[in-house]
Amino acid sequence: MNLDAVRRVADAVLYEGYILYPYRASAQKNRSRWQFGVVMAPGYAAADPSESSFTQTECVLEHTGQPAVDVILRFLQVQRRSSEGLAPGAAPAWDEAVEREVEFGLGHDELLGGGGVIQFAIPGGEDREPLAEPGHVGFAVRRREPLAGAVSVTATPVPGPWRAVRLRVRVENRSAPDPVPGTRDEALPTALVAAHAVVTVSGGDFISMTDPPEWAKPAVAECENTGCWPVLADPDGGRKVVLFSPIILYDHPELAPESPGELYDGTEIDEILTLRTLALSDEEKLEARATDPRAAALLDRVESLDAQSMQRLHGTIRGLRPAAPGPAGGADALGLEPADFDPGVPWWDPEADASVHPDTDSVTIAGHRVARGSRVTLQPGRRRADAQDMFLAGRIAEVQAVLLDVDDNPYLAVSLADDPDEDIRISHGRFLYFMPDEVEPCEGTR
Question: What is the mean pLDDT of residues 218-238?
Fold first, then answer.
């Protein structure tokens, strides 16, 4: 199976945050790196409960009776670079990384007969690269610590008439530095960084963890995932490849074809990051080139982009389809008048529909008319993913506008009624946004 497209997505996971924008060693963001998929040596993990010495990923696999899997474990080995014999600051100290892969397969007899374990060892070492500058001759020194680990694969049958198993892949760091590192910075050279796996199957198909068929939902609910999350990764939409990712992704992730190359941000907004990089001063660019070979290549690529390439980054349309009527219970059902658009006026022009205006529109909630100036109690819904929402539950807010999304569903722009600095945010147009079912009208709202 050709895994090139899968590897490109996996590389975006592997190098997420490797060089944090704006790509210089002295940038404040680069003070904290290696945040995703870090599997620490067990000695350090035992002393720091925020760290772990393993990852475990489970998913459901339906099969024809003779399934076989291939597992590719991928991670970075931290490589510490320092300089000897050069003027201070001539070659900044920096943590680089070396890509590592461990690959093995299990046939159907082994997979269904109890699974298997493979142990691996990555040697340490030291490289010295001669460097010269006026008046100084020195070396760039790169040191790596030895790593050891194990990958175990087990398959537990799913109860029922179907042929299916709950596949578990567990990755353990078994490195044993002596003495045990006392700080996270000291422990990182013996960690498996950005650890993830690509698993392929023959004689079967993986089940989506986010959209499983009805029969598989109980088995999917029993899966225990620690440190990684499995997503279907076939570029053609199939179910033969799964990516065990330390970053939560949707099924069948892909890189935008307009992206000219890595920016080391897994959710890249290429145009913004490219423009920000071009805005660096000459001194900052010089420092970025000295920080890391990947930073130098990134800067070369960004500076060589032509106008046409930049235009592609500005936006694209994947496809066009006729506009569908608004969903039941949308704007019409909530008392908002339907728009009467003039074909001669662009849809985004406020003059296209004078009957809709955020200052005068209203929505009916629990029998109450809610419009600008109404007070509501915030009740963030379960579908919201922002952890900060827990601090807003029960707070009183004032509605600043009733708005419509692209599907004509109304939502509210609100400001907190008891925040002493809220007038500043209102003047800048900075609001909180809630759907109608996430607020309760306060007493006296009509």
Answer: 93
